[in-house]
Amino acid sequence: MYCARCLTEYRDGFADCADCQIPLEVGLPPQPGEAPPVELVTVLETSDPFALNLAKASLEDAGIEYVAGGGDPSGLAGMIGIVMKAPGGGCCEIQVARERESEARALLEPLRHPRSIEEGAEEA
């Protein structure tokens, strides 16, 4: 067991890193120069190129690395890389590391559930 943040190794029986206060990972820590595994979660699926580019810009401004894949017509790749979903499908998904999921979802919420201009004007 080891801490994914500080890479300190722990023996069995521990659940959290004493220094970082995060859950421990099973196995051995990655070797120097070896990237630790990243669990990705989907935070946005869209076929709207405007929403896709806005989402990418928002994540980049917040310093959140992402993977974008699918029928991305712009050909822009995320900071981590690009993963193709369905060739010619027209729908694209954006994924982030699980530890940044809640932050990314909050940031992208307006794109996940857009309101029309009329709705926004009525509530204001």
Distance between the termini: 52 Å
Portion of residues in helices? 25-40%
Low-confidence stretches: 71-88
Shape-level CATH architecture of the largest domain: 2-Layer Sandwich
Large-scale geometry: elongated
- Total beta strands: 4
Question: Nearest-angstrom radius of gyration?
Answer: 18 Å
pLDDT average, as an integer? 77
Q: Main beta sheet: strand number and arrangement?
A: 4 strands, mixed
| CATH C-level label of the largest domain | Alpha Beta
Count of the domains? 2
User: What portion of residues belong to β-strands?
Assistant: 15-25%
CATH fold node name of the largest domain = Alpha-Beta Plaits
Q: Helix count?
A: 3
Structural class: alpha+beta
How would you spell out the order of helices and strands? Answer: EHEEEHH
User: Order of strands across the widest beta sheet?
Assistant: 1-4-2-3
